[in-house]
Structure formats: C-alpha cells, structure tokens
Amino acid sequence: MEVKLVHGNGNHACFDCFGCSREALGDEASVRGFLDEMPGVMGMRKLSEPLVIRHEHEKKQESGITGFVIIAESHISIHTYPEKGHAFIDIFSCKEFDTGKAEGMIRGRFSPERIERNDSMRGTYRIGADGRLEEVAGITGSEGIASLVKDMKRIGFQATNLGRAADVIKEMRENGAKIFLSFTSNMVSSGLREMFAHMAKHKMIDVIITTVGSIEEDLMKTHKPFLVGSFEADDTQLHKRGINRIGNIFVPNDRYEWLEGRLMPFFSDMYKRQKERGKPMSPRSLIHELGKTVDDDKSILHWASKNDIPIFCPAITDGAMGLHLHFFKQENEGFALDATGDMKELADIVLNAEKTGGIILGGGVPKHHTIGVNILRDGLDYAVYVSTATEGDGSLSGARVKEAVSWGKISETAKHVYVEGDATIVFPLLFHSMKV
Q1: Of 31, 163, 277, 306, which has the fewest beta carbons less than 10 angstroms from its beta carbon?
Q2: So which residues are the catalytic ones?
C-alpha cells in the first residue's frame, strides 16, 4: 500500500498571472464573465451574481478591477492591474477541484505569459489508503526478484525507496511514456553494460543519454573484457604495469591501444561521408553508424543501432574517443562534428511524447541533459534517480528530484523517487523486477 495524501475539506489555489492581455484585464464584462462561468466549469454551485468594481488610483498603474463571486463551497476572487498586465486570482473551495482545469480557463480568458500557482489542501494529513500506515516488516520468503523488490517497500529506508522506484518504472512503461535511460560511463565499466544492452535489445527504453566513456568502453568490451580487481590495489604498481583502475575494475592499456586501431578507419569512412553530404555529422549519427559496425549480442551500441534507439552524447570529446577524434583531425583538418545537430531530434522526441519518463543512474552531463531537455514540455512525468552523491554542495549530481521540479525539469505532478545507493547494487534489482 502506497502512503499518499488524503483530504476531504477541499483545496485552495492562488494564481499570480503576469503578461496578461491588458484589454481583457481592463474589461469589466470580461472579468464578470470569467467569475460567472468559473463555478459551473469547476462543478461548483454559484450562490450570488458576480460583484465587479472598477477601482481608480491616483497612479494609473495601480488602477484595476476587483471582483468576486460567492459559491456554496466558499468564493472566487480576482483583482486585475491592466497597465501592468497582472492579475491575481484566488479560488477557495471546501470541495476539491481540478486546479489544472482552472488554470486552463484563466489562460483562455486572460492569455498570461506566465502563471505562478500556489496550491494548498484543507485538512490534509498523511495516511494509508485503508485508513492506517503500513507496518514495517521484514522478508523471510519471496517468489522471485520482482516479488522481493515489491515487498522491500515495507522494510524502510532505501529499501522502501527501491520498491517505490520499481512501481514508478512499471507505471511509466504501462502508460506508454517515452523512457530515457541516462547513465555515466562507470556504469558501462561495470557489469551493468549487459543489462543496458538487454534493454535496448528488447526495446524497453526509447532514448539513451550518456558520456563518451560509455561508447568507447562498450566498444572495447567487444574485443576484450575488463577485469575485477581491488579498491586497495597499489596504484603505482598498476601504472607501471599498464593497468588503469576504475574503482575495483581494472582496464589494461592494450584495450585502449586496440581502440585507436578500431576507430581511425571508422573515422576515415565517416569523413568520406561528410564530404559527400557537404556537412558534418552529429554525435548521435556518428554513434549510430559506429553501432552498425558492431556484431556483439552484449553490446549497447549494437542493439541501439539495430533497433534505432538514439544514443545522445553531449560530451563527445570527454574521453579516449575524444582524443582520437582530435588526433584524426590533425591529419584531416576538414573533419568536424556538429555538436548542436542532435538537439532538434532530441527536442522533437520530448515534444511529441504523450508522457516522458527518466531512469537516471548517477549524475553529471547525462543526468542534466535528460532532465534539461524536458523543460520543453514542463518536465518529466516520471523520474527515478539512483545516486550516492550528496546535495549539500549544490552539485547537479547530488540534487534530489524535488530540486528539478523548481526548474520545470520534472513536472509538479510527476511520479518520482530518489534511491540513495550504488547503482551496481540497486539497478540489477530494478532490472530483474521489470518484465520484458
């Protein structure tokens, strides 16, 4: 049982409107018509005819129209400042109403450029749907991972958040949301890579946003695996032996040496295409073409290209692949990538989606690019964050979901949850709780 808000004494909504039609704000008939129509539209019972009074102030910009209408549930009031283009509207009701519908009527009548809305519920308290809070309980038996994750909601702490995250992911999938999977490159360094590839293979996601390290490491793993090492390894000795450490994962230099040999001929082919097209490719197009050259069932690139799942990489030069792009350009000065070339496709995906959801693992550029582009549609409708970063330093990586609401990157009405934990522990549980 999900703990949720329960109330029975109605709600209040205050709409501060800016950049409105001055003509509409200064028209008594328009204001009276608004007050006359609003109760019926909102399912309220009007008890009086609207009272509308024009107020003239010695300062013209302070002049305006004040009006109110009494309803059985309470009242609706408005004050306009035509010279400023401002209107302030309060709907007080002892009966619940659709604030979004009310906002739509306000927009239709007064055409504001911006609305700041403050909602409050009367008699609000937190309680379970069955009249009580769920009891904390442990798990002594389970019928599989999906059942385990569901039952973890009653354990408390981050186990509860993990269970709720599974619910949010389930809902975004069932409701047909365009699902954005974002992750940092260390996720691909780990064994999460194969899970991401599986999701692309079975079209469980619609968009991938990541860093260039994910691209190059997925490619390198098609040649040779990475190795499980130790966090406590002697890094000086590792350096002397040509072994690079990512936490407790070891990556010998020969993987990077192979990468250079793999990429340079590919860049040459892409440069020929650039000349034929007469313009540079975008990073997404480059990655898509690279994926076509990969034949590996465990590869993210392979399945994303095969199923036409776009991979957006806004920081294409931040890694070994970026260095190789630079080295190639030294010998081929005309070679270029159009860093802005992906934005229209990404924006179109966001704007044309009925709903959008984000599974956001870690932080950095992938996280911000995912939530940032969703500003175009007033935010993600669903969001699951998994991270170990702290919010105390004001970093984007550590920012909680609620902070993104303030920016419009996540919708005010979105279903969202933050799981504080290592993605290599959390995500396998979420992955196996999903049904393909």
Answers
A1: 277
A2: 409
